Amino acid sequence: MAGLDGTARAAKSRLDPRGVFYGWWIVATSIGVQMLIGGLALQTSGAYVVALGDDLAWSRTMLSTGFAFISIGMVGGLGPLQGWLVDRFGPRRVMRTGIVVLSLSFVGFSQVEHPVAFFAAMICISVGASLAGFLSLTIAVVNWFEARRSTALGLMQTGFPIGSALVPLVAWSITSYGWRPAALLSGIVILLVTWPLAGLIRDRPEPYGYGPDGRPIEQEPPRSTGDGSTVSAPAPEGYTLRQAVRLPAFWYISLGHAAALLVVSAVMVHLIAHLNESMGWSVEHAATWVVVVAVVQGIAQVGGGFMGDRISKRVIITLCMVGHLVGMLLLAFATAFWMVAAFALIHGAAWGMRGPLLVAIRADYFGRASFGTILGLSSIVSLVGMISGPIVAATLYDTTGSYTAGFTVLAIVAGLGGFLFALARPPRQPT
To answer: 378 vs 21, 69, 81, 258, CA distance in Å?
Structure first.
C-alpha cells in the first residue's frame, strides 16, 4: 500500500491474517460483550424486582428506582468522563476496568440486606456496565467505520437483544434457587467471559494501515451528511465538544433520545410485573415476552443499520418514535393476547431500528475527532429519560394501582420525542 511504512504493514498483517477487515472482528466481539452484560445485568431487572419485593418487602417504587441506575449503564452513564477516558486511553483499558467493577458489584449485590447497600450495589453495577459496555464499544466501532457505520452499529447492537435469551434462564434460576445465588453466579460468568473478549478490541484503524471501512488511508470515499445525501469532499475531522453544544441539532437529538430511553427503561423494568398482574401470567411466561421484544429488536437493528446507510436516518428515527407511541398505548390498555403481541412487534421494531441510527447520526453530524466526548455529554442528557422512565411508571403504579396511567404518559412523551427528531436537521460541517 502506497504511503504505508513497514511497521504499520506488519501490524496489519498480524491483525488480519485471514484477510478479513478487523473492524468486523470488533463488531463480533462487541456482540458477545453486549450479550453477556445485557442478558445478565441490564435486562433481568423485572425478575429481580419481583423476587426482592417478595423476599425483602420493599416497595415497587424503591426497587424500580434502584434498578433504574442499572439501566444507566446501557447508554454509558459516566457521560463525557467516560468518552474522554476512551478517547485518551482506548476502549480496551476502560472496558477491563468496568468488567472488574461489574463482576465485584454483582457479588456485593448478592449479599445486600439494607436499602443503602442495595442502592450502592446498583450504582456500582451501573458504573461497571457503563465502562465495560455500550459507550466504549460504540466509540471503537465508530472509529473503524464510516460509509458502513450504520450497518456495523446495527450488527453490534444485536448483542443486547441476543442476550435477552438469558433472561428466562435467570428468571428460572431466581425462582428455583433464589436471587442471591443467581446474582453471584452472574458476576462470576461476566468476569470469566468478557475479560478475554475485551482483549480483542482495538481503538482506531490508522495505526494498522487502514482508514475507516478498511480502505487505504489515502483514499476518501463519498461522505454521508447524515440526512440521506452524500458529498464528495473529504470528511473533516469534526466538531469539538464546545462547537457541538452550540448546535441546535445536538440538543434536539439528545432530548429526543431521552424521550426514547424513558419508554425503553420503563418497559425493561416493568414489563414482567405488568404482564404478571394485568394478564395473570406467571413470571416465567411474562419473561418470555422480553425475549420476543428482543428478537424483533435484533432483526430490526440489522435492517435499520442497512437502511440508515442509504436513506435519511432522521426520518427513520422520527417514524420509530411514532411506533413507540403506538406500542405503549397498546401495552397500557392490553386486555388480550393480540394486544401484547402487537406491542412486542411494534415496540421491538422501533427500538431496534432507531438504536444504531441514534449513534450513527451523531457521528455523521459531529465527526470522529471528539466523538467519544460528544457522545458522552449527549448521553448524560439522555440519561434523564433512562432514570425517569421506571420511576414515573412505578410512582403512577403506586398511586393508581396499575400501569395504565404511567404507560399512557410515556406514550405521549414518545410522540414529543418524534417531534424533536424531526427538527434535528444536519449542521454545516466545520471548517
So the answer is: 30, 17, 12, 9
Residues 6 or more apart whose Cβ sits within 8 Å of residue 104: 124, 128, 187
Predicted TM-score (pTM) of the model is: 0.71
Hey, how many other C-beta atoms are within 10 angstroms of the C-beta on 199?
A: 11
- Average pLDDT of the residues in 182-203: 91
Q: Is 238 helix (H, G, I), strand (E, B) or coil?
A: strand
| Nearest partner of 153 among 38, 350, 300, judged by Cα | 300
pLDDT digits (tens, 9 = 90+) for 290-309: 888 878 988 898 888 888 88
Residue burial 333-356, b: 16+ Cβ < 10 Å; e: rest: ebeeeebbebbbbbbbbbbbbbbb
Of 44-48, 151-155, 398-402, the poorest mean pLDDT is in: 44-48
Percent of the chain topping pLDDT 70: 88
Task: Provide the 8-state DSSP code for 367.
Answer: B
Q: Residue 31's CB: how many other CB atoms inside 10 A?
A: 20
Quickly count: other Cβ atoms within 10 Å of residue 423's Cβ: 15
Q: What whole-number distance in Å separates Cα of residue 214 and Cα of residue 216?
A: 7
Cα–Cα distance for residue pair 349/408, rounded to 1 Å: 19
d(CA 298, CA 291): 10
**For the chain, what's the residue count?**
431
Position 330 pLDDT exceeds 90: yes
Asked if 369 contacts 238 with a C-beta cutoff of 8 angstroms, the reply is yes
Q: Contact 198/95 with Cβ under 8 angstroms?
A: yes
DSSP string of 77-137, one letter each residue:
TTHHHHHHHHHHH-HHHHHHHHHHHHHHHHHHHTT--SHHHHHHHHHHHHHHHHHHSHHHH
Determine the average pLDDT of the residues in 250-259.
94
Q: What is the pLDDT of residues 227-236, one digit of tens each?
A: 444 444 444 4
CA atoms within 13 A on the CB side of 418: 20
Give the sign of the dihedral formed by CA 124, CA 258, CA 320, CA 335. positive
